[in-house]
Amino acid sequence: MPEPSNVSLEVLKDRAKFIRTETVRLSRIAGAGHYSSTFSCAEILSALYYSQLRIEPSRPDWDDRDRFVMSKGHAAIGLYPVLADLGYFDPAELETYTRLGSKYGDHPDMKKVRGLDFSSGSLGHGLSVGLGIALAGRVQKKNYRTYVLLGDGEMAEGQIWEAAMAAGHFKAGHLVALLDRNGLCIDGHTEDIMSIEPITDRFASFGWGVQRCDGHDLPQVLDAFARLPDGTTGKPQVIVFDTVKGRGVKRMEMSLDWHVGNLVGEDYDDVMAELDAGLKPYEVEPAE
Amino acid sequence: MSTEMQNEAEIFRGTTEGSTSFKDSRSVRGTPKAGMPAFVLGEELAQMAATDDRIVVATADLASANRTNDFREAYPERFFDFGIAEKNMITSAAGMAACGLVPYVATFASFSAILGAEQIRTDCAYPRMKVRVVGTHSGMSMGFYGTSHHALEDLGMMRTIADLTVVCATDANHLRAILRVSADHPGAMYIRLGRGRDPVVYDTVPDITIGKAIRLREGTDLTIIATGSQVRASLDAAEVLAGRGLSVRVVDMHTISPLDRKEIAAAAQETKAILTVEEHNITGGLGTAVAEVLVDLPRVPFLRHGVPDRFVEVGPPAALYAHYRLDASGLVAVATEFLGL
After folding, report:
1. How many CB pairs lie under 8 A apart between chains A and B?
2. Which of A243, B71, B103, B145 could form a cystine bridge with B42, CB 3.0-4.6 A?
3. Residues from chain A contacting residue B88 (CB–CB below 8 Å)
4. Is the per-residue pLDDT at B11 higher than 80?
5. CATH 3.40.50.970, chain B: domain bounds
6. Cα–Cα distance measured from residue B286 to residue A209, given in angstroms and rounded to the nearest whole number
7. Closest CA to B128 of B186, B55, B191, B210
8. What is the pLDDT of residue B114?
9. Is there a contact between B96 and A133 if contact means CB atoms under 8 Å apart?
10. In what order do the strands lie in the sheet with B132-136?
11. Does A170 contact B at CB distance below 8 Å?
12. Which residues from chain A sit within 8 angstroms of residue B127, using beta carbons?
């Protein structure tokens, strides 16, 4: 059984860059893409898929594999290249991205995408899906982990808290929520539109084990994964990753304009060059 | 037995008799009254689970009302009470189905099909998860508990969802038959029940095929196409009409989606008129589905009968059925008016 591997930080950084550049490239095929929501979770996805998940791409239906549910399905554009890169399907298939009849739409379809554990797109559902998968593992006496990537905007959905309550109640210790806390929903800052803080206290009060760290700092991300207790504690786990929406492209960082956009012409080339240079320290612009 | 005999509190406890700490009053737990039709949902699922380890059951704080507690007693480790959180229950069931389990999730139809409609569509039907959403106490069988607890729109909502099989149980034996074939049926299903202790139509467990109607009575003057709780009333009405010299065919259209178009075409060809009968809003349910088939066929006199497109009155179920002419005598009146007799 493959275990989480010790890949180098350089590899993980490179794969995070790959997730971002592929997002820009595929968005150009579609004529629109969820850039900033995907950029915020690039390090999380990289660390998860290239070091953490117990999976075998040659056997996508392997019963004992760890599961991953992308509750924030609009970031699937960053997941498809990872699945292709790992060998679930031919990367050339992504050239069809969003075109008529393609397997790969903006929101992912498990019946079409090899390696995808569940379909998503309607926000607020993913934690329930993950809970069901975790409970199935209990019924079937498996010890896989189920990871669910949540957006912070969808924390306003009531079903998230139904699932959080039930996971605590059912002692779903093999369920791990990964919260991409990038601070923005579509209409503004989450704390202005529908505040979700104190988010760690809220999960803790529902019976969850809680960690919080910088979601762009790969050593911190890996450390948080390493600290996850095994499922036998009976406590579902959440890692709140503080991230920056649009991270990696200066003009998109914490911008409300780039939830969905379309980079063309010189802007496309400039952004690709910026991403290729790697992440620079994040600086908050002084208020004008 | 008639609904008049039922204790209206039994809906929440699933039984009519039980002990109480009070002198004359009666809470409703314990064993059913003698002669009362059994509510077999949990019992049948437990029997199936004995040889099928894919089966798991969930409810939302209504294990007594829908008798899934009979399953819980037999298989506690395969039973989940999600509390009053239907959306989470339905979506979690989809997650379980993704791992190869076949979950049956049951609650009142108003809270499974109507409250959970988006979860059924997006998480069960679209990814073709083998989730069986069971809607008990559908229609207006909750009587004076009111519109919040009625489901008179569920068929219309469910049958427009692609890749979702929609089936109505007629009585206890028919429910057993549906459950037995459901375990290996592909994709998601919505199974609609009445109160669970509905009047008997089938003396034994019938041999059913999803998508194939059951012709219960032959006739040539009129075909009554009914579903669920209205099949018994339709048979009784046909008997009365027979006494008046009318030859009435009765069809149990238990599967609403996919619809048995051949049986509808046969009725249009072989009988002089068609009447659909359902405990559902007249818009969008069985009658509408049959009309969609008939519109492509040579014209035949056709009437849809159900609940008018208004929220219904409060009242005991039997009184409501009489008021809306959804009991046998009401159906006789509807049919004779329709035929101009």
Report:
1. 99
2. B71
3. 128, 131, 159, 162-163, 166
4. no
5. 3-192
6. 50
7. B186
8. 98
9. yes
10. B79-81, B55-59, B102-108, B132-136, B188-192, B164-168, B255-257
11. yes
12. 109-111, 118-119
What is the CATH number assigned to the segment(s) B214-338? Answer: 3.40.50.920
What's the confidence (pLDDT) of residue B36? Answer: 72
Mean pLDDT of B236-247: 98
Sign for the pseudo-dihedral over CA of B55, B58, B63, B67: negative
**Interchain proximity B88–A162, CB inside 8 Å:** yes
Q: Amino acid identity, residue B290?
A: V
Amino acid sitting at position B140: M
The Cα B130–Cα B339 span in angstroms is: 43
Q: What is the CATH number of domain B3-192?
A: 3.40.50.970
Smallest CA–CA distance from A67 into chain B, residue: B99
Pairing of strands B255-257, B164-168: antiparallel
| DSSP β-bridge partners for residue B275 | B224, B303
Provide the Cα torsion B24, B28, B30, B33; round to 10°.
80
User: DSSP strand E in B149-282: where?
Assistant: 164-168, 188-192, 214-217, 222-226, 248-252, 255-257, 274-281
Which pair of structure tokens corresponds to residue A65?
């594999």
Do the Cβ atoms of A131 and B95 come within 8 Å?
yes
pLDDT in tens, chain A (288 residues): 344 467 899 999 999 999 999 999 999 999 999 999 999 999 999 999 999 999 999 999 999 999 999 999 999 999 999 999 999 999 999 999 999 999 999 999 999 999 999 999 999 999 999 999 999 999 999 999 999 999 999 999 999 999 999 999 999 999 999 999 999 999 999 999 999 999 999 999 999 999 999 999 999 999 999 999 998 899 999 999 999 999 999 999 999 998 899 999 999 999 999 999 999 988 876 555
Q: Three-state SS for A118?
A: coil
DSSP 3-state assignment of A210? strand
Domain residues of chain A, as ranges? 9-277
* Partners of residue A125 in chain B, C-beta under 8 Å: 91, 119, 122-123
Copy the structure tokens of residue A150: 């949540």
Stated pTM of the model: 0.95
Beta strands in B102-141 (DSSP E): 102-108, 132-136
B286-297 tens-digit pLDDT = 999 999 999 999
